[in-house]
Every structure is written in structure tokens, then in C-alpha cells.
Task: structure prediction
Amino acid sequence: MASRTLDELIDMLARLPGLGPRSAKRAALHLLKNRDTVLRRLAITLAKAAEDVCQCSVCGNLDDVDPCHICADPKRDSAQICVVEAVDDLWAVERSGLFRGHYHVLGGTLSAIDGIGPEQLGIDNLISRVEAGVLEVILAMSATVDGQTTGHYLADRLGTTNATVTRLAHGVPVGGELNYLDDGTLGAALKARRPVDRSATDL
Amino acid sequence: MASRTLDELIDMLARLPGLGPRSAKRAALHLLKNRDTVLRRLAITLAKAAEDVCQCSVCGNLDDVDPCHICADPKRDSAQICVVEAVDDLWAVERSGLFRGHYHVLGGTLSAIDGIGPEQLGIDNLISRVEAGVLEVILAMSATVDGQTTGHYLADRLGTTNATVTRLAHGVPVGGELNYLDDGTLGAALKARRPVDRSATDL
Result:
């Protein structure tokens, strides 16, 4: 419809998650309007990312260095491993600022249909790391069927090690209103109810 | 939060219209997961677009060649010029398949606040093109205040030429339901009502 280069650009942009064909066109025109400040810089950044960003051979995190800055940080507790499905889950846990241990990024969930078994998720590698002296493994899986199935499998496999296996608490999200909550969450929150500590600030 | 390269990539992606910080993260991970098929190819396409795509010196369209393939096409009618605000408006008119003339892409609308005057929109260039023998100028502006103001100014300026100046019809959009239409559109459609041609297939 437009020039071949422009068509190709729109086609490539439309493959990004979150951009449809229409917004890809808008993005392409925006890029061409800001050729030096956005278009050229984005091209360079993408090429750099393709070369520099690598997967940490220890935990599966993405970083410029291998091992990643979390695995290499001597101030972090190597006796705790938090298992997450994906790198953005790792980022979410990091944002909470409450975890100072190491990670294991599965890179997906077990799925017979998609042919994703324990090998694809590096679970043997996780078991060897845990056997080398980890005290606690926190399963921070999504509360989806796939996430929970993978969590159960991991808990099973980790049963042979000496580590304590924990999982994230289910319950009312902070800021969540009860009448908008789904029944499953409310049920989980009720079952896991805790005695009120009158001295604590959180209810 | 993550690696510096990755942070930079997310930051650059978040500047694209249509991608927020959250979807930029998702896009970055998607790119890194598909390094050869998407990431590297997108980097190359962007660099190529930065070099190859240029603005047509005649009409302002974006293309790999100057003059653009529309201005250079001998089968198109150079006696008709369709004035549009932006390149994506040109694409929209092209998609309709009903216009076989040439274009003038303003690259914006008149705006005293943003300092966009007739010079920025290449209006002198348009006038000279029209004076060189154009029979009809179609003002295909958006039905917004800015678009219509610019249209009025252009109609005024083009009054000194011999060309007929027309504008797009306002009315009920094809497929539009009356009870969802705004009053302005319905009013315009009523004022511009047309006798029913019993032999024609469109009502």
C-alpha cells in the first residue's frame, strides 16, 4: 500500500504483542517523524539487545552478564530460591522489595500439549542447586491451572531434598474490594484466615 | 531493575504510541524470546526505514523513492489533487480505491498554539501545483475543529485559482445506526439529504 520498506516496517511492528495492524501504522509514522530521536535509537537499542542480553546460566534471568547481577550479588541469600514462571514475574517479585534470595526462572509451565516437560523448564538444574544447600524454595507461580499444576509437580520433586518448600499465600489482594472478588479467591482467603494481631499495623 | 540494555530497550519501546510501560516490557521479552525471527529483523527493518523512507518532494507522501510512486504513476490523473492532513489519511483514501488523482499531504493542521502556519503545511507549494493546471482540489480533512478550520483557510486561498474546490460529504457512516449517531452528524446528513434514485442500488 505504501512503500515496500514502510510496509515491511508496519508488518514487523504489528507482530509485537500489544500492537495491532492499526497501531503499528501509527507507530511507524511516529518513528519516521522522529527519525533521529526515536527511530535510529530504537534500531541501535534493538541490535544491542540482540547481541548483549543473555540468559543467566544459573537461574535463567535475562541480563547483560552471565551469571546475572542477582546470582552474582554476594549480599543476596543463596539459601533461598524463588521459583517463577517468567522473567517478568521475577521483576514483579523484585519490585516488592521483600525478597533477597536467588531465583529460578522456569521459562514457562508444564504443558503436555505444547510439549513442555521438566527438561524444558530446567528442573533438574533446580534440584541440583537445591541439593547443594538451599534451605527454602518459594514457589511463586501464577494462580492459574497451569501455574498450580507446575507448582504441585515441583513440590513433589523437591520432596526428596532437605529444603522447606513454600508457596505464595492466596487471599484478598491489597486494595481489593470484597464484592468484586471472585468466589475462588474469597474462599481461599477464608480458609487461610489468620488471627488478628492487635499490635501489628496491617489487618 | 533488569539489565541496562534491557531497561533501555523497554524505555525506548514505551515511547511508541500504543505501548505503555507494561506492554513495552511484554514486547521486550517477546523480542528476546524470538531473537532471530523478530528482534534482529526488526532492528534491520528500522535501520533500513531510517535510511530509505523519504518524503516525496511533490506531495509529502512517504516512500522509498522521490517523487513517490503515486506522483510518478502516469496512469493517475494529475488534474485532481486530494488534500489530506497526514500520510495515514492518504492510506485511508487509497484503501477506498475510488480516487485516482494525486495528493497533497499537509503534515498537520493550522494551529496558532503549536506555531503551525501555512509555511509548515507547504500551502504555497500546493497553490503553485494547482495553478499549473489542476481542475479539482478535494479537501479530505478530518471533521474536527482543526481539520475544518484548515479546510476553510485552504478553500479561501484556493479561491484565486481556477480549480473547483470540493470537500468530503458529511453524513451517516455506512453501517452506522441512527440512534448511536451524534446530533452533529445526523444534522449534517439531514441538511445534505439527496433525492432517492430508484434505479441505483445504494439508498
About this structure: Strands of chain A lie at 54-55, 62-63, 77-84, 101-105, 136-139, 164-167. The radius of gyration of chain A is 22 Å. The longest strand of chain A covers residues 77-84. Helices of chain A lie at 4-13, 21-33, 35-52, 87-96, 123-131, 145-158, 183-191.
